[in-house]
Amino acid sequence: MSADASGFAALVEAFASAAVSGDGKRFAALFAEDGVYHDVFYGTFKGREALADMLENRFHRDAENFRWDMHDPVRNGDIGYARYVFSYDSKLKGAEGRRGMFEGVSIMTLDGDLIRSYRVVANVGPRL
Fold this sequence. Notes:
Strand content: over 45%
Structural class: alpha+beta
Radius of gyration: 14 Å
Strand order of the largest sheet: 2-1-6-5-4-3
Shape: globular
Oligomer: single chain
Number of helices: 3
């Protein structure tokens, strides 16, 4: 693994760890100042303040007991990919305690060692 690849693997691990912990400030610091997160459920969030708010006041408001396993991270220039499995226990009315799960591929556009843009290709069928 090249230094670039090992650095990307560390970024992917830090990303998942911060998201699961609910630490919005740590999560947002992994992004460029004007970084963008395109979420398949909540929409698009831009800038570190909005990213921290998304994590703390949407993800962790509506769910708990997160698990975000990232696999096979690969970086090619300014683009990085990782396969993932994401799961959580719902806190939404009518679905309290139900385990949701989906899998997909994370796609990160990078600016050095920071995330410029994050989006996914997700198989949400098992969740729905």
